[in-house]
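Sequence in, structure out.
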Amino acid sequence: FNSLNHDMTLAEFKFIWYMEYSHRMWGRVVGLAYILPAAYFWHRGWLSRPLKGCVLMLCGLVCFQGLLGWYMVKSGLEEKPNSYDIPRVSQYRLAAHLGSALVLYSASLWTGLTLLLPRHKLPETHQLLRLRQYAHGTTALIFITALSGAFVAGLDAGLVYNSFPKMGDHWIPDDLLAFSPMLRNIFENPTTVQFDHRILGIASFTAVTALYLFSKKIPLPRRSRMAVTSLLAVACMQ
């Protein structure tokens, strides 16, 4: 209010306050949904030794995620008397908060599916090993792309150029490497951050398409085939 939104009304403040409040409450509900059943199952002796380690890791990740959220919000409330920038949270902390959420979600889904669905006993052919390696590489690329999106959001980089595939009148904008040292551009230059996110997004979509086409050459179980097809569908929608 003091730095930017001098004309904000109480109703407008309540709107953003309730968004933040709802997000915090929902996060706490998620934490309880992990910790309370985990404590009950542990007490009843329903967890195997490997699963106990997995449950401890997931509950620890839930707590760490909440701590990172507090640390991120704190960065947006710090006074910066010598700065004329728009008040915002640190893009580094935002990326860390999003990244830990993705790790938590993926680990939860993997653990749940491992318990619910028996693992297919497939022959370890050369093609299947290549497909698995390629799937892991595609996963890493998608994860990096999502993290780059957090930098776009943190810097409001999406507002810099709103044309596609060119950025304004250029394929490569003039201010791509305007910051010094050069490495700062990747994380702090809004133009570079948006450019990188576009390149990573196109690369991720290409990788998913290639994964799908490669999987068509391999006889896969129905469940695996559905997973690869669903991945391509979600990539198109995204």
